[in-house]
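User: two proteins, same treatment. go.

Assistant:
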Amino acid sequence: ARMQVESVPLAPRLRDLGCHPAGLSDLQAFLARDDLLAEVAALNATGLTEAERLELTQLLPRLADACERLAEVALPPMLVHPDFRVANCVLGDMSVRFLNWADSFVVHPFISLLRLLQLDYPEALEAPQRDPVVSAYLSNFEGLQTRARLLEALRLAGRLFPAWTLMQWSRELSLLEPGGVSREIVQDTWVAVARQ
């Protein structure tokens, strides 16, 4: 979190170096795409069921509303590790090194925390206001917002996390050759995230 806060003035330079911007406006544009549901359905042989398509259609306006409400919390985009989890941390005597920065992007900072919680501390998602990992992380942002606003932002970011993930997988999918094994894996993951 401290590294993320320190990255704010570096965001333009990080984008120039290849960190993908993936801000709330990018997410809103992604969710507003006319072809989004058709793309999800076409990605694998089974696609989404009619009930899943209807559910996703009804969910999209609520996700757009969550984007707007999260933007009101006014945390600037920051450097985000796309696979931030314990397995990508190496503890030294007095330091921690973070591995696997290849697909870093500049986005709402809580995406990193949500990835960590989802993979390594899922119980923290049930009561984030009492969790020590969440508390330590959020303490770095208290100069930017109140604790109550930060917890609200975390809740909203949690609702948007699958949509952000879908947007990132969509970007990956666009870079892969049709018919390849990697593309099939990404396609299956894309549909699984859409179902989430």
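Protein 2:
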Amino acid sequence: AVGKRVREAEAGAMTDPLTGLPNRRHLDATLQQFGRGGGLPCTGVLALDLDGFKGINDIHGHAAGDLVLEIVAERLKQISHGFARPYRTGGDEFIILYTKPCSRAEMKGFAERCIEHVSKPIRVQSCEMAVGASIGIAFVDTPGDIQGIVPRADEALYMAKRSGKGTVRLYDQRPQEAPAAHEATALHIVAVPLRA
């Protein structure tokens, strides 16, 4: 009985109590496992941030905001089923670990579908609410790419937010042509517009 309670407490410490998604602590442990070569393969990390969430809290209250987060989490679980794993890492921020070998175009298409699903209207009684999402993607091409993968995805997300939100940006780790001298320190960020 004691062992069961300990396991339940450990599981609770790894789970976001509002959405039921694994939390940041769980994410860090999973990435460490990936770095040691254990568990499912990780081919990419998507950093997702909600657009317009603050307005939900300001206009409809925090209870409505919590409901939106629960629904968003459920939508991410549904669309990720079988090949990706969503985590809630704070506030209105989520990380998705992509575990299926695929091309950059496929992962970008998945990110676009995430935005589409998250952005669907949320109806509560007679009230309709909506949020959007922006996503940054960093790729795992070699086991060493796991180190610092989340900050790279966050960097691409920052570019997505700055570019008008509701977009996908890729942090491209592939070899590039030698940049011009004045661009030598620039990040390799690739802009990817959403499909019409």
